[in-house]
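TICKET: design request
STATUS: open
ATTACHED STRUCTURE:
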């Protein structure tokens, strides 16, 4: 098992390197550790003076951990549609957080109340999907929205659904994260 501190330093270094290079990562990296070659899903969150500055990630493991962090860090800095591309002067002032996601697990619920009773505030990241609409909140969002009903309602709004929407075809999953700052 890889030591937590070594994993933290390595993942953050990969993210900072991707942000520091104003070109999108290309071919898969040659990673020095086997654990960086294992497929993983990650999110990279950027903050400037405590405020969100970018957040991009993947829900399902599709590429090696090192590659996923590099791609998501670059995308969070330069491709998040909510923000302009990161300026050169800001590259060294940005706070980086890497979240490594567990595989998602389907949440079955008969109602919004049933679902909210099953949610674990502060632990669960949640994916909501209905037809072609989909959104996720990382577990860190619980810090700003601690109430399960409000959390779910805001997640549905993020997906483009009405906040009180509930339908038998609504799909929900949960996952947890290992967070590195």
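STATUS: resolved
RESOLUTION: sequence designed for all positions
ATTACHED SEQUENCE:
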């Amino acid at each position: 098992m890889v030591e937590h501190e070594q994993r933290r330093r390595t993942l953050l270094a990969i993210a900072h390197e991707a942000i520091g290079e104003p070109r999108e990562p290309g071919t898969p990296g040659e990673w020095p550790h086997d654990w960086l070659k294992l497929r993983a899903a990650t999110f990279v969150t950027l903050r400037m003076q405590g405020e969100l500055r970018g957040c991009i990630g993947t829900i399902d493991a599709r590429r090696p951990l090192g590659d996923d962090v590099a791609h998501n860090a670059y995308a969070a800095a330069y491709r998040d549609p909510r923000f302009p591309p990161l300026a050169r002067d800001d590259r060294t002032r940005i706070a980086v957080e890497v979240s490594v996601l567990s595989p998602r697990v389907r949440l079955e619920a008969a109602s919004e109340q049933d679902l909210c009773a099953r949610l674990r505030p502060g632990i669960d990241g949640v994916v909501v999907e209905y037809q072609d609409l989909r959104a996720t909140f990382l577990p860190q969002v619980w810090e700003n929205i601690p109430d399960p009903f409000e959390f779910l309602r805001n997640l549905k709004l993020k997906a483009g659904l009405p906040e009180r929407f509930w339908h038998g075809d609504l799909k929900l999953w949960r996952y947890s994260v290992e967070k590195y700052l």
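CLOSING REMARK: The domain at 105-180 is CATH 3.30.1490.150 (Dna Ligase; domain 1). The longest helix spans residues 4-20.
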